[in-house]
Amino acid sequence: MTDLVQESEPIAPVAHRSRFRTTAETVLRNRLAVAGLAILALLVVVALAAPAIAPYTINEVDVANRLQGPSAQHWFGTDELGRDVFSRVIIASRVSLQVGFISVGIALGVGVPIGLFAGYYGGRIDSVLMRLMDILFSIPAIVLAIAILAALGPDIVNAMIAIGVVYTPIFARITRGSVLTLRDAVFVRAARSIGASDGRIIGNHILPNVIAPIIVQTSLSLAFAILAEAALSFLGLGVQPPNPAWGRMLSEGRGFFQQAPWMAIFPGLAIFVTVFAFNAFGDGLRDALDPQQRSVIESRGKA
Amino acid sequence: MTQPVLSVRDLTITFRTREGPAKVVDRMSYDLGPGETLAIVGESGSGKSVSSLALMQLLPTPPAVVEGEAIFEGRNLLALDDPEIRKVRGNKIAMIFQDPMTSLNPVRTIGHQLIEPIELHLGLKGRAARKRAIELLDLVGIPSAADRIDDYPHQFSGGMRQRVVIAMGISCEPDVLIADEATTALDVTTQAKIIDEIKDLQERLGMSLIWITHDLGVVAGIADRVVVLYSGQIMEEAGVDELFRDRRNPYTRGLLASLPVPGRTGRRLDAIPGLPPDPLRPPRGCPFSPRCPHAVDLCVRQEPALREPVPGHRSKCHFDPEDLYE
Amino acid sequence: MTGFVVRRIGQMALALLGVSVIVFALIHFVPGDPVRTALGTRFDQEIYDALVRRHGLDQPLAIQYFSWLGSAARGDLGVSFRSGQPVTGLVLERLPATMTLAGAALAVALVVGVPLGVVSAIRSGSKLDYAATAISQVGVSVPDFWAGIMYILLFSLTLGWLPPSGYVSPFTDFVGWLKHLILPALAVGLVSASIIFRFVRSAVLEALNQDYVRMARAKGLSRRAVLFDHVLPNAWIPIVTVVGLQLGFLLGGVVVVEIIFAWPGIGRLAYLAVGDRDFTVLQGAVLYIAFMFLVINLVVDVLYAWLDPRVRYD
Fold first, then answer.
1. ipTM for this prediction
2. Do the Cβ atoms of A276 and C19 come within 8 Å?
3. Is B106 close to C221, i.e. CB distance below 8 A?
4. pLDDT tens for residues A122-180?
5. Which terminus, N or C, of chain C has the lesser number of Cβ atoms within 10 Å?
6. How many whole angstroms separate alpha carbon C118 and alpha carbon C201?
């Protein structure tokens, strides 16, 4: 009698391409995720085109018109030096996106290989690497970032490094987790039995299956990285003047709260919308790729 | 048959899905006599588990729509309200499931879980309830029951865990015990032992037993009557000996033919080609027609009736085997 | 159980050691000369040399580390470059403020997040569920410092209900203390609540789908009994895990919020120390924050083992 016992196995690499299509379809069905994606697309366009489309330059001081509310000439109003808030906000988007992408890129580039090696080779390597990751994990994110920036000096590049370091452990953890599940999967054993080298196994077989959680984590980490950048520049530790940054604009806006609340409202709104878009899209990705992915991701939290 | 303990009439279960209604059980009817063991046999997706879950209203009713009747003690189980059906569950009719590891709550002792139905239905409390729980563990063959009653599920082996689950099932001496693939997750030796133990308990307690399985080998060892289910419909129903000796329905024939025969090595297994129909798009005529080697035009066009050519032996087919197999 | 606790304490000590190395390394690889910066315009070679000797800065790094570590173990974290006050004292002074704020934020997060998450899971698919999930999506994306500023704008400057910043001791003015506590606690707590809500919801949903829940219902237990006796005890476990992980975020958020609301806590101390290049203070503060975090994680782990018997027999 046909005994329909099904073993759920990770899909061997051949099925990868059609998985992309089904994933894309699932994500597109999720309205919130699509909205997020649309916002992100708009954001990238705006960021790239910012110098061209901004009506004013970032340091166009116009003291006569300082602290004006939103108007036709100044959509987001002006700050204490008469600078156009709208222009500064959209130009600052370049910084945020830059820092976000590069820092997550660093976290990916360092964390994923660490996770791969720790998971695949196990034993001593695993213990040592994971111990290291745990130690990094055990300092609250923003505190660690502050400490790193205190050491390296506040600067946009250092901010990228700091945020990258802060998020490396989680990429390492997730990669390692996936690798551990896959290491003993049947198709890996099969590959090994025909003599494939370790490198080949890792590259061709393990990596494609590990990609899904990494992709999800990337999107969500981007959201948090942008928040982290905002927090750091809020504290004066990120991008330095005269370059505008959302977080710093918030901090500067605090001083003029009562007269010109728009100085603080709009940059913060920009941060919120960006982070929301990344989160919405990331959630959509996660629901499509792996609904069971636990909130180790979510709860590592923001800086 | 003397007055049946349980009488199921035209049980029909439909699931509302995003792609439309899916009929998972279609007009299933059977009777269960006192002390009788009825086996419900079918492939995965045949509706066998769902049909039993529905009896005690254990199906989530937003997606599921349950129609028909299940008469027990003069009342329709499917129409009872929540407080009433809860009095039946675990008490008059008990159900045990396939995987003992997941059927037991990992963070509560087995004693706690065993005592729950005892306190709830038998009104025993404290010491008395605990005493009964220990007796039950003894009954199902757990050694040093008095010590082990405070242990957690993960401290038991698979076979032991299933025995604990069985103990929970029989704790209130139900009239009917429904076992849904209760031994499928166990190794063959343990399987045989547990089946024997359940039969023993059944005799001692005078229970009726509904045994749900896909494994015909188990059926031979335990059942009095057999119902063969395919795509939510009863294809054949007969006494167990009668069924094995004289299977009338092509589907049942296919099932039995695909069993490996001990001693006859070197031949390919005769699996039934094809897959069961999609409950969203059931075939119009006989549900087995797409895969039946004897199917003709009539089979595809018209749904066969459940005929009873031999008393006590029903088959859903337009033809008799005498016509099909010369 | 005690074996488990002892082992975890050992692990914590190791982690703390690791953290101390990192903290020390970070601070000491700073380009530039902290003593010189601290002296600023009052620079004088003699005083400089004296200070260097006093803080042991002329010793090789390894010795500096161990002596710092040794003193730290005895409770002496050095003295502030700026003010000369003992760091330990400065930190301990501010500890209660940070702890109360973190505690309040956690309370907000749990009181809002957990019940909503449970109810949402039970009534999955209902309007309440959709609404709560949508709001939480927003809540997760809001920067807590921006939220803090917005709250000040709304509740202090516009409505005038609550003070915009500052701190009053609960012993001198309890109501005033509460009033000062609300906005910062909400700023951090509500964001955390959103994260916890989402997690609790999925944990409870998963528990609800388990076979043992079906088994419990098959035994005739009422919905309530199933929920409290079977679903929640299992859902607690991942919930406790996420709360533990959230604490890192909470502490981080508290640091930022302390700055906005001028709440005199360790976070604010650390921030001001960065500005002053006062590295002994920064070292001490960061070490202390990490230590608190590790201790809380330890408590969470022990709680976890207590809730889940499978872990104990590790």
1. 0.79
2. no
3. no
4. 778 888 888 888 778 777 777 788 778 777 777 888 889 989 998 898 888 888 877 77
5. C
6. 6
